Fold this protein.
Amino acid sequence: MAGGPGAPGVAGATGAAAAAGAAGVAAAGGWETVIGLETHVQVRTVSKMFCGCSAAFGAPPNTNVCPVCLGLPGALPVPNEQAIKLAVRAALALGCTVHPKSLFARKNYFYPDLPKGYQISQFERPLATDGLLSYLSPDRGVATATIVRLHVEEDAGKSLHDRVPKQTAIDLNRSGVPLIEIVTGPDFRSPQEARAYLLTLKQVLEYAGVSDCDMEKGSLRVDANVSVREAGVTALGTKTEVKNINSFAYVEKALTLERDRQIAVLTGGGRVEQQTMLYDAKTNSVRPQRTKEESHDYRYFPDPDLPPLVLRPELVDEQRAALPELPAAKRVLTADRAVADYYEAVVHAGTDTKLAANWVLNEVLGDMKTHQEQLRVPPGALAQLIGLVLGGTLSQPGAKRVFAHVAERGGEPRNVADALGLVQVADSGVVAAWVSEVLAAHPVEVQRYRNGEIKLLQFFLGRVMKVSRGKADPKLAQKVLEEKLAA
Amino acid sequence: MSDPSDALASAKAAADRLVKVKRLNACLTPTTELRKSLLAQAQLAHPSGVLYGMPVAVKDVICTLEFTTTCASKILEGYHSPYEATAVSRLKAAGALVAGKTNCDEFAMGSSTEHSAYGRTLHPFDKTRVPGGSSGGSAALVAAGAVPAALGSETGGSVRQPASLCGVVGIKPTYGRVSRYGLVAFGSSLDQIGVLGRSVHDAARVLSVISGRDPRDSTCEDRDSLRLPTVPESLQGFVIGIPKEYFPADLDPAVRRACDRVIRLFKEQGAAVREVSLPHTPYAVATYYIIAPAEASSNLARYDGARFGPRFNGAADVGALYRTTRGMGFGTEVRRRILLGTYVLSAGYYDAYYRKAQQMRALIAQDFRNAFDRGVDLLFTPTTPTPAFKAGEKLSDPVAMYLSDIFTVTAISLPIGRVKGLPIGGQFIGQAFLEDEMIEAAYALERVVPSSEEV
């Protein structure tokens, strides 16, 4: 704070007030979570990254191996062109800049399932950088993750600790299987967002034919960098890396655990240590990796066995052409600027972000697809329509009919709803009449309900909606039903 | 030779000669196993091959299906490779016989063949001296007349230096001329299989067979195998550059005299001789001692006792397994270089050492291109600054053992004289992938140089 001479008191007071404000937010539990993801994806090839062995999953241990992927003395790697092509395709699908020249590098560390004592990866000059992936955030609607880099590498083998008592067995079938690593910026603000991004990434890569993204088979694996900071703070907190997240089901759990652990540490006056945390699905807990295991200096250097990876422009063009047109639901989350803008406009017109996203993904995109990619319902009209649903004026099916009508002929949703007779009847007298009619028509069911079969309530509700031709306000109808049946 | 009985006779004779030179400890293969294998190979050898029946010994850092491949290290004691090097497959396809595995410095790290876990190799002319290295066993066997040619490998002079000290021909091909598939890696960006032979022709014809593209080695150039040149009448038309940095004031006087004699012969043979300069020469040794160990530290990480080779016991956990296996399996020189290489690649030192060394390497390579761009066809220098030295003499000072000619593109060393009975070698350095031109000049020099005369 520069505070000119003569005004220090004023500046000081302002600063103190601001600090108090921030502290107030924090005391109210105002922590912001910051997550970045590193995703390893096995690309769909017949053979391994640097040798001709099968890359198939599930073969008997150590049967898909040769001198190259066993790391035998004198063996040399030769890149698999198909793996490179799929990596390029993935990079293009994620809007990355694909570099005409990249370098393979060795990442050196000792581990029994790493046969050469190094992993062939890419370091200083990756295959691709600077991509974007839009996805549907449950908190913020359409959000965009930055893809910092995408590079090619080989997988390690697998250590099996439960095969032989007191010993570790090594299966090298996976050694040398081609992977791409996709690294995002610190872009996610909740474990739920991280999961939503991953699901979208999976969809895009599956659809582009890059990978089957099967987490259970290990063809998609996630490491996450997690930190927390007080709301309003812009600097990043100290991060930890969470590893061993092996299923989509665990993504949220593991990240939530780690976020909560960090908040607890900070709230208790402690400091978050920069370290690697392992998620244990069995106990649903995170624990720090032993310090010894992680004190790696990987000593990256360009792999002298592999010349620079130079991509012919035709190869990149070919992969761009091979990129299938993404289906509407995926496209909105990736590339279609117009739809993203439309969504923003709907939200801006004042409505619930989640409902707006659902409407855009389902009705709007569906309508676009069948009508020459036109956005026929103005954003303001959609916002009003969503408001009518929220307010109980329209049922969901009724709202869809209104949407279709507005798309075809225009008009204000409220007026259209009136004209079509779709406005829900919230008059308790009218609803009570419909309820009485239904109960009178089904005396047996009424008796069963009164004998304890309370799930029949849904049956009665369905009947009420039917006799009212969808116009009864379902909440009101349920309330009246419960009252009458209890009587 | 195309009669199968000739191959058999050749195999028997080779086995006899190899037994006779056993005292040199140049061949690591037990003689009974060697004899048996040679006879079996002779029966299966391809009679139409250009090397039919020719026994070729193979340095123990090159994988063979016959015999063990130990890299003269305890860490690979008893190791049988399940596959063979491309160079070896090509030799066999040409009808040659794999005549045993030759002793060398452990993992090719050294220049005296004293750093072998299986004992040092003796110089064939003076048992108190070293044959050079690291391909010392190959050089000694050829010099002793046991085999007409042998495969060696170079990372920084390891073919030419022992060839020079033993008085045989050694060719270091351009990097990428011969597949490295099956050559156990030391410094991958420098390693190249080379050939030692009793004459230029023997070395050249073996090189011709093993050279050429190989889909298994991404660093091997997409070129046909080397075509052998014809023996020229003279050196008419050749412009030969003499790099002044290779003739320092303290160069051994006998080596200088031998080189002066060669230069006079060049002129008599009609070649133009010019002095040239390779200004970055003083940095070559330092550059080599960063790049080669850096790569070695990574290349040798796979020897951990987990998958192959002996596992030294007392291993309570995986860390202990690594420590005991690598601590006991590697010799001191190898451990020294792994430590050095690990250091120069470490975070915080990479830029100061490894990156700098790569920049210097580019400058050194540019020196050679500059010389060739100025109309010089070949360079000529002494191969080593001295004749063979005594065993134990330079063990503690490995750096002094290298002459700074390691980033040459291709080179051939041949004997150019003797001092007190010990051979002196001189080398042509040629342009990348112009081995044929270089070999042509070597043919011409070989014909006129009095290589067994004292200078």
In short: Chain A touches chain B through 30 residues (CB under 8 Å). Residues 29-318 of chain A form one domain.
